[in-house]
Structures are given as C-alpha cells and as structure tokens.
Amino acid sequence: MRAIAKTTPGPGLALIDAPIPEPGINDVLIKIKQTSICGTDLHIYNWDHWAEQTIRPPMIIGHEFVGTIDRVGANVKGFAPGDLVDGEGHIVCGMCRNCLAGRRHLCRDTQGVGVNRDGAFAQYLCIPAANAVHVDPAIPLDVLSCFDPLGNATHTALQFDLVGEDVLITGAGPIGCMAAAIARHVGARRVVVSDVNPDRLALASRMGATHTVDASREKLQDVQRELGMHEGFDVGLEMSGNPRALDAMIDNMTHGGRIALLGIMPDAAPVDWNKVVFNMLTIKGVYGREMYETWYKMTAMIQSGLDISPVITHRFHYRDFEHAFALMRSGKSGKIILTWDD
Ligand code: NAD
Ligand code: ZN
Q1: Which tens digits make up the pLDDT trace of 155-184?
Q2: Most exposed residue of 58, 98, 163, 256, measured as fewest CB within 10 angstroms of its CB?
Q3: Which atom of ligand 1 has the smallest separation from the CA of 176?
Q4: CA 242 / ligand 1 centre spacing (Å)
Q5: What architecture is domain 153-285?
Q6: Which protein residue has the closest C-alpha to ligand 1 atom 25?
Q7: Residue nearest to atom 27 of ligand 1 (CA)
Q8: CB under 8 Å to 82, separation ≥6 — which residues?
Q9: Which atom of ligand 1 is nearest to the CA of 265?
C-alpha cells in the first residue's frame, strides 16, 4: 500500500510503499477514504523540538480519517466489511484507574495513532476495534474526516454551559472556528473570536463568530466597550496556544468566569494568578475527546444542523501531499483534506 511516512529523523515526509498491516484478533483493518491534516502532522513534517522528542521513525503519520472496514479480527463483534467508520486516535491501556472507571480520555498510558504508532495517511490502517467508531453515512465524508479535531472543539466548547453566555474564543484556527460554530449552535449570545491572521478571522465569521478581533491591533477591553459589554466574558475557550492570548483572556473575563484551555503553549506561559484568585476564575485543561461521549455529542449536533463545512477549504490527492503541507504551513487554509482513492 502507499503511505506518507517519516522515514528518517529530520524535516520532511516521504511517500512510501508499505505492507498492508495484518489485523490482530481484536483489531479492525480500515480502508482509508479521506484524511485531513492536523497541526500535529505539520509539527512532525517540520521536525520541531516536540517531534524530535516524540516521533520514532520510520513511522506512517496521520490520525484524522474516515474509511470503511476491510477485515476484522476473530474476536471482533459489531463491525463488518463495508461499514463506514471513523476512529479515535488515542489508544488507551484499559487497565489504569481512569480507564477502569470509564474515563478513558484520562488514561495515563495513551498511545497516539500516527504519533506513537503507524497512522492513517495510508491506504489501510489497523487499530483496535475498540477505537473504531460507526458513523452516520448521511454526514458528508469531508465532515467525517474532520471528526477528530471537531471532537477537540466539542470537548472544549461543552465543558461549560454556553446558553445565553458571552463567549471569547482566542485562536481562529480550524478548532477555534469549529468551536465558534458549536457555541452558536448551542445558544451562546456573543461569540467573539480573536486571531492575528485576517484570513482566519474571515473564516471565523463564516463559521458563526458574532464579532472578530485582530489581536495584533485591537484590545479586548475596547471591543467589550464597543459591544456594550460591562462585566466581561462568561466563558473563554483558549484555542491559540499563544501565551499573550491567554493573558488577554484572563484579563477580560467576568468575575466567576470559566476558561477551558485546549491550546498547547510553547513553554511555561506566565499567568497573573491574582486575577484568577480575586476574580474567582475557573481554568480547566482539556485534552483529546471523551470516549465516546464527545463522538455522540458531535454527531448529534451535526445531525441537528451544526454546519462545519466552511472550515474545509482545500482538497488534494495524497500524491500531492507536499503542496498540501506547504499550504497548511502558509496559514492560508482551514482544514485540508487528502483523498486516498487509488
Ligand atoms: P492552529 O495553529 O491552526 O490555530 C491557532 C490560531 O491561533 C492561528 O490561527 C494563529 O494565528 C492564532 N493566534 C496566534 N497568536 C494569537 C493571539 N495572540 N491571539 C489570538 N490568536 C492567535 O491550531 P488548531 O489546529 O486550530 O488547534 C488549536 C490549538 O489547540 C493548538 O494550540 C493545538 O496545538 C491545540 N490542540 C490541543 C489538543 C488537545 O488535546 N489539548 C488537540 C488538538 C489541538
Ligand atoms: Zn489507561
């Protein structure tokens, strides 16, 4: 089969021929239809510090996908060849306290598909059946291939009650834009999205932001005044991974405001803890997706009219992956799809 892999330590990726993986008794073999490119894949391509510490080449990368079941292991029930599936990219140990309590997203021994083991940028992917997820075939394939990051947006956005609330989202990357759409869908009043990239802010507007803020030249205090807000944002969703965005968020929350942090900060990010203390802010870190409550919620929201399709801006055949990664690096895209028909 053809696959996109990190073959040696260092920048770049290669299109390789690899054997089709052999499913174990508890595994499913998935024929990949479409994948989408995640920021993580770009980190791996670029071979930054995180990638150097984490990735052990040779390894096929990628973890956002949709495909059909090709074969199942002898123990597998509930999946049959031809079933349309997505997959949860976090493979958990099943034995730690959190796993045993059903809190699998909190497993301390998580292995990442396309990070710690071969991934989905290939014609076939083998994962445990427990990680395959049946999907509604009425949902477009483009949208299904983005369920992994939509899950990050859903998991974060639904941490706190948004109904009638004024929500601040810092970072209008694909995940911030999807979170804006979710916040509107579930009934937030104001959905204010900040970024430093005008293309991304335009995308946020198309996705349902009620107001966008160019953080490179506008102050959130001024925006609040302009919008007639007096007490600050009720809920903050940090989706930029930029310490300055977090600082501005903490500075603009209502007393008792709640913040969900998804963005991954480059290093230790300074926080004015006295603002957190005196304003009684709640700050909650968010990782991955809940298995499988997040999958249930995002499916239900799509089925009830949540539209994330504007976030999908480009499509390439897998053979053109170099162009896709160059576009991704330029910041002039939303989600980029790779198609895997032969
Ligand atoms: P992305 O890099 O595409 O988007 C981040 C956006 O933040 C960019 O558009 C960038 O221009 C913007 N930004 C930069 N500085 C800013 C500032 N000062 N104020 C406001 N915006 C600013 O990333 P993404 O794929 O949308 O993911 C969002 C974040 O979530 C990333 O940090 C990513 O690493 C993280 N992430 C975390 C998890 C998790 O499980 N915790 C999972 C997936 C992604
Ligand atoms: Zn575990």
Answers
A1: 999 999 999 999 999 999 999 999 999 999
A2: 163
A3: 26
A4: 8
A5: 3-Layer(aba) Sandwich (3.40)
A6: 39
A7: 175
A8: 68, 69
A9: 32
Q: Which residues of the chain does CATH 3.40.50.720 include?
A: 153-285
Q: How far is CA 47 from CA 9, 52, 172, in A?
A: 8, 6, 24
What is the pLDDT of the chain when averaged over all its residues?
Answer: 97
Confidence at residue 16, expressed as pLDDT on a 0 to 100 scale: 98
Quick one: what percent of the chain has pLDDT higher than 70? Answer: 100
Cα(90)–Cα(108) distance, rounded to whole angstroms? 11
Instruction: Decide whether any atom of ligand 1 lies within 6 Å of the 240 Cβ.
Output: yes
User: 62: closest CA among 342, 337, 341, 326?
Assistant: 337
Return the ligand 1 atom nearest residue 197 CA: 11
- What are the tens digits of pLDDT across the range 283-304? 999 999 999 999 999 999 999 9
Q: Which ligand is nearest to the CA of 204?
A: 1
Q: What is the fold of 2-146+308-339?
A: Quinone Oxidoreductase; Chain A, domain 1 (3.90.180)
The ligand placed nearest to the CA atom of residue 96 is 2
Distance 273 CA to ligand 1 centre (A): 23
Residue bearing the CA closest to ligand 1, atom 33:
263
CA of 93, nearest ligand number: 2
Residues belonging to the active site: 40, 43
DSSP letter string, 31-72: EEEEEE--HHHHHHHHT-HHHHHH--SSEE---EEEEEEEEE
Burial label for 75, CB within 10 Å (0-12, 13-18, 19+), is: exposed
